[in-house]
Specification:
Blueprint (H helix, E strand, L loop, with lengths): L1 H13 L8 E5 L2 E8 L5 E5 L13 H5 L4 E4 L8 E2 L6 H14 L6 E6 L1 H12 L4 E7 L10 H6 L16 H6 L2 H8 L1 H10 L8 E6 L4 H7 L6 E6 L6 H4 L1 H14 L1
Parallel strand pairs: 3-4, 3-6, 6-7, 7-8, 8-9
Antiparallel strand pairs: 1-2, 2-4, 2-5
Helix pairs in contact: 3-4, 4-8
Length: about 260
């Protein structure tokens, strides 16, 4: 748990910038920064992980752009993005993203790509708006039964046992430097996990699950069963950022998806 918290701290200190040609747009929920690049359809939507902003995709953008138009953005609480919604659960994030895409004149369907916790958010988006989705790519995505501290899942069933201001027990020094997005989303963690676990309306679209070679393979195998049209790619030599450690696997996933759609 402490190692993962440290990773988020380092990310927040070294990152939190924007990509070139970033734009801002105002929706009924707030103001959001985003970048649109490449050409083609369907548009690829990128959702960064828990504690990462849009710059997570900087080294991978050219690979996505070889296939289609690419949209990446900062969730509320990262640089350039703010929301009027106090709740930062997956359902709210999906709602805000859909409105943002509408205001930016980017029509569906979309190829949803999510890394880590962003994969969980993209799963909830696909469950909630299945007609918007043409394919999904999950990059070492978070499963609804996963959390670094297994005891936390049990706490979710006992709200009285959770510190609502700091449910994950993040050290206070880390809270001083972590982005507001991470802190707000952590407060809604139980609701997000529950939404993902209870919603079974995942669309029957091409699905790729890219996994690092760690102990979560059974959960990632389960993610691959969300759609009958799926491919599970495992990289035993990769860390959590599979798309950065072995980018050719990302290209393989995109080729497979575009072949299927």
């Amino acid at each position: 748990m402490k190692i993962i918290i440290l990773l988020f701290v380092v990310t927040s200190l070294l990152g939190c910038t924007t990509l070139p040609n970033t734009k801002k747009i105002t929706t009924k929920y707030g103001e959001f920064s985003y970048q649109l690049s490449g050409n083609g359809n369907p548009t690829i939507i990128l959702e960064a992980g828990w504690g990462d902003d849009m710059t997570e995709w900087k080294s991978s953008l050219h690979r996505f752009e070889q296939f289609s138009q690419v949209f990446t953005y900062n969730r509320a609480g990262f640089k350039g993005s703010d929301s009027q919604n106090e709740q930062r659960d997956a359902q709210t994030i999906a709602l805000e993203l859909r409105e943002l895409l509408k205001e930016a004149n980017i029509p569906p369907p979309y190829i949803l790509v999510g890394h880590s916790f962003g994969g969980l958010y993209m799963r909830v988006y696909a469950n909630t708006y299945p007609s918007d989705v043409s394919a999904v790519i999950q990059i070492d995505a978070t499963h609804h039964e996963f959390f670094p501290d297994p005891a936390f899942i049990k706490k979710c069933t006992k709200p009285e046992a959770i510190d609502l201001e700091n449910p994950t027990g993040i050290p206070w020094l880390a809270l001083l430097v972590l982005p507001n997005a991470f802190i707000g989303e952590s407060k809604e963690l139980c609701k997000t996990l529950d939404t993902a676990s209870n919603n079974k309306s995942f669309p029957e679209v091409p699905l790729v699950v890219l996994s690092a070679g760690d102990a979560n393979q059974s959960q990632h195998k389960d993610l691959a069963t969300l759609s009958p049209i799926s491919k599970h790619i495992i990289c035993n030599s990769c860390g959590h950022y599979v798309h950065q450690d072995k980018p050719e696997l990302l290209t393989e996933a995109l080729e497979w998806v575009f072949d299927k759609i």
